[in-house]
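WP5 quarterly update. Target: Ferredoxin. Source organism: Mycolicibacterium sediminis. Length: 343 aa.
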Amino acid sequence: MASETEVDGFAPLRIARVVRETADAVSLVLDVPEHCARRFRYQAGQFLTLRVTVGGRDLRRCYSMSSAPVEDELRITVKRDPGGVVSNWINDTVVEGDEVHVGPPEGRFVLRGDLSGATEVVAFAGGSGITPIMSLARAAVDDPDRRVRVFYANRSRESVIFARPLDRLVAEHGERVLVHKHFDEDDGVVTPAAIEAFIEPAGDAHYYVCGPGPFMEAVEESLLAAGVKESRLHLERFTVAVPEPNAMDESSVTEDVVIELDRKKVVASYRRGDTLLQTARSAGLRAPASCETGSCGTCMARIVEGSARMLNNDALDDDEVDEGWVLTCQSLPTSRRVRMTYE
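Structure tokens (predicted):
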């Protein structure tokens, strides 16, 4: 049963502990009350959506869990980002006892069910991309037959998040855990040769990648070139896609959007450059949404007439896209009329 104080699916959670990880990264341990325990069960690698008010603005941001279910704790880690309104606000002002509004765990960057026996988890993290990787590693080592290998790239030693927890994982699990720390200040940016050398001993593994865009692209290209199957390559992107000029031009042909939600049909005039989610909100509809980065799938709807283009999609699989499903928070209409339905 949902808490009476929940609003739009966001529950008020108290911050039980604040942990300063580095000069520009902080972890928040969240106190989940008993009546919310079921809703906040999570898988390693998933994220939470926080809804906060900063400077009078209602903002939503997604942050990956750095804890794992085996730890019986719910913890997120937030790194300061130049120009990042919410991340900087969290690092500068949040203290133990504060309350934040949090959506339930979401995301598909999780351990795959076919991992068993000697199968390895091989992970590549860049900077704050270590957050979900740390969660995955902590969960993976709970299986005594599983090996975990982590390639962690940072600009300098001072920017390493979870330095001690990573060292503890190695100390506690011996040969089952390998952590390689790469520092740009010593060896330059990560090269394909360094990536290939790290994966060479790996056996029948699944590969997980999270970090800055250029880092992720380099790792993805190197893994595919080395013969890693796409089905065993899992990516988690933190960046939000923005409309390209040509995408804006495509959307300019749209005149209206027909939206079917909760047994209501609304015809909304289209404003150039808006996503389908923004169009629904402008029409006064309480359209479902959570992360608004194309990662969770909460806002998905099906296009039954016309067409739309997704700027980012980390939630829907190819079959769902073929059936007409889109993430409305990331979709720009590309036809004169679009009709979509929430089912």
